[in-house]
Each structure stands twice: as C-alpha cells, then as structure tokens.
Amino acid sequence: MTIVVVMGVSGSGKTSVAAALARQEGWILLEGDSFHPASNIAKMAAGTPLTDEDRWPWLHAIAAREDELLAAGQSAAVACSALKRVYRTILIGDRPDTLLMYLRGSKELIAGRVKARKNHFMPPALLDSQFASLEEPEADERPIIVDIGGSRDAVVDDAIRQLKERLL
Fold it and tell me: The pTM is what?
C-alpha cells in the first residue's frame, strides 16, 4: 500500500494528477479541498489567505484519513497544496509508505491556468500568497518532481512513470 501526496500551488494540477494516479492504480482519491471546513472555504472565496491556524485542523483531518487507509491496507493519491515543510511533516511524517510528488511550474504558467478556471473557490488574487508560502521540497524529503509545463496528458504520464520508477 502507498499514499502519494501530490502537492503544489493552486492551479498546478494537483487534482488532475492525483485523480489520474488513483484511476490508473485503482487507488482512492483524497481531494484535500474536501477536508476544509466551510469557514476556510468562505475565507478563501472572499480573497483572504488562510493562516497556519486555519490549516492545522485541515491537515490533521487529511492525515487521519491517510492513517485509516493505510491501516485498512488501501492506497491513495492525495491532492493537497502542502506548501510548507511543516505541513508535509503532518501529511507524510514517519509513514514509510507515503511519498511526496511536487508539481512544479512557473508563476506565469500557473496564473494563466488559475485565471481560466471556472467555478473554483480559490480566486486568482490568492496565487501570490500561495507562492509566498511555498517552500519547495528539499532533497531529504525525497520528492518526485514533475514539471507541469507540458500538456495535461504529458504531465500525467511523467508523474505515473516517475512514481512507478520510485516504487520498483
């Protein structure tokens, strides 16, 4: 069993990549946004960045679900921004079967994607706060790094290829 935390700023493709991994591998998809309390969604929709205090219960709820799945012998792909190392420590911690996948792209590329999205609670204005909070994973976190500059299919194919190489 494996948990893959697919991280990146809003608009990097976390949900698309995590959903594709889950489909391909027959895993469960955990969409991090669905773990947010209504107060967090309302805050972001109003254009107010979340604080760490807003995030702690959200992150612990995702981690608790990961632990339930691992205890049940199930694998999952988790779409979660996980922008700071301390957040990733909660989501990955000392779980040996949990991997980190970082979707990396330029601010310009991601801003274009965010502006083109329809019906998403995260407004483009919050992208600056996401990049300001982003702490790119360091080598000791052993991230799988996926460049998101290509087509959606190419990004998904690269993510799956790198994951399979890591799991060998």
Answer: 0.91
